[in-house]
Amino acid sequence: MSQEKPTILVIDDEASFRASMERTLDPHYRVTAFDGATWTFSQVAALAPDLLMLDVMLADQGAFELCRSLRADPRFAAVPILFFTPLRTEEQYRRYRSAGGSRFLNKVIDRRHLLTAVEEELAAVRASASAPAAHPSAAA
Fold this sequence. Notes:
By secondary structure, the protein is α/β, with parallel strands linked by helices.
């Protein structure tokens, strides 16, 4: 990540949720929001977001399938992916983990909790990117 504001991509079917995320995150991050029914994988790839936020209940290609597709692409292997849902079932939690999700949050979330979750995920990426590589003799 550069010194510029990190880019966050929100993909959700609800216009009001996208607008709420933009209002909350925009002062701190560059935010782009796509309608869950009209986004394309090429748009996501062109944007090259530092963090993605996905609605679990996406129409068409579901969030879990999108997450798996993104994780299969080396460009997105380390990008944090946060899932949002109005529901929180054990089945959804298992599916989000197996798809490669970074965090699972309820859609009813307060501003501070959201900002903390986003910053923690971005900080983890920065820390892993700046961690020194293991010395080859350490593996012996």
